């Protein structure tokens, strides 16, 4: 299974790239984590934010591979414990489909993207900086995998 992390934002600081890469490389080929960055729309004081979010959504949809299980990361989504995430990962592995996890920009995900989702995952009721979400998601996926395989990392 390939897990595509499709995220609005590019040109991340080194600490973000390093943190994400650390956990992504720990995952085995059976759960390969692949980052696909979506260029954010240019935001200015007078920007049409609704149009920007819609265009970001269109670029995200274009980046989603065919026949993939789509999961949005969104505050109103389901909050999973680590064991629940591990169960979701087990389900994804057993389905034989690739998975696409979608992270929106500063204003969130476009409605068109949300409508494609089969699941929605909330990391927290808190709002996190989007670069940090990449690291948290990668770490939590590795933690869920380690739980499924009785690896000592989860302890």
Q: How confident is the prediction overall: mean pLDDT? A: 94
Order of helices and strands: EHEHEHEHEH
Which assembly state applies to the chains in this document? Answer: single chain
Largest pleated sheet: 5 strands, parallel
Global morphology: globular
Subunit structure: Homodimer.
Binding site for S-adenosyl-L-methionine: 73, 104, 123-128
Function: Specifically methylates the pseudouridine at position 1915 (m3Psi1915) in 23S rRNA.
Keywords: Cytoplasm, Methyltransferase, rRNA processing, S-adenosyl-L-methionine, Transferase
What brief labels describe this structure?
single chain; 155 residues; alpha/beta; five-stranded parallel beta sheet; 5 helices
Structural notes for this entry:
The chain is α/β, with parallel strands linked by helices and 155 residues long. Helices cover 43% and strands 23% of the residues. Helix 1 runs parallel beside helix 5 and helix 3 crosses helix 5. The longest helix is centred in the C-terminal third of the chain and has 19 residues.
Give a brief description.
With 155 residues, the chain is an alpha/beta fold. It has 5 helices and 5 strands, in the order E-H-E-H-E-H-E-H-E-H. Helix 1 links the parallel strand 1 (2-8) and strand 2.
